[in-house]
């Protein structure tokens, strides 16, 4: 995601960039995969590893909800109600970011990842690319 230009942004010092790439044609978007506190990222959008019900109770989703406020969960419930169904794997929906320093939260139902199932790399990549 595109980073804002803030000279007092300490997030750069607290995050570790694991991978960066660009996607999209003709307009390219920079995607960064980082290790750090996602709730402090000053970017256009962050991604949330969501469940198909968009219930943000625990893990990263819970941390995003705690920092961003209940409006993220409310908007997520509204999406499920409006669609009349749960969200599919690799499907992306977005909400406003509430109190977070970014503008949007992209909620993505991705593959279940564990150390015994590392063949999910292609599925993960296609999920990320589907955002754009």
Can you characterise this structure?
- The chain has helices at 11-14, 59-68, 70-83, 121-130, and strands spanning 16-23, 29-35, 45-49, 92-96, 104-108.
- The protein has 132 residues and is α+β, with helices and mostly antiparallel strands.
- It has a single domain (38-130), classed as Leucine Aminopeptidase, subunit E, domain 1 (3-Layer(aba) Sandwich).
- A hairpin with a 7-residue loop joins strand 4 (92-96) and strand 5.
- The longest helix is centred in the middle third of the chain and has 14 residues, at 70-83.
- The model is unreliable at 1-11 (pLDDT under 50).
Index terms:
two-stranded antiparallel ribbon, three-stranded mixed beta sheet, 29% helix, disordered N terminus, alpha+beta
SSE layout:
Layout: H1 11-14, E1 16-23, E2 29-35, E3 45-49, H2 59-68, H3 70-83, E4 92-96, E5 104-108, H4 121-130
Parallel strand pairs: 3-5
Antiparallel strand pairs: 1-2, 4-5
CATH topology: Leucine Aminopeptidase, subunit E, domain 1
The average pLDDT score comes to 81
Largest sheet: 3 strands, mixed
| Percentage of residues in helical conformation | 25-40%
Note the beta-strand portion.
Answer: 15-25%
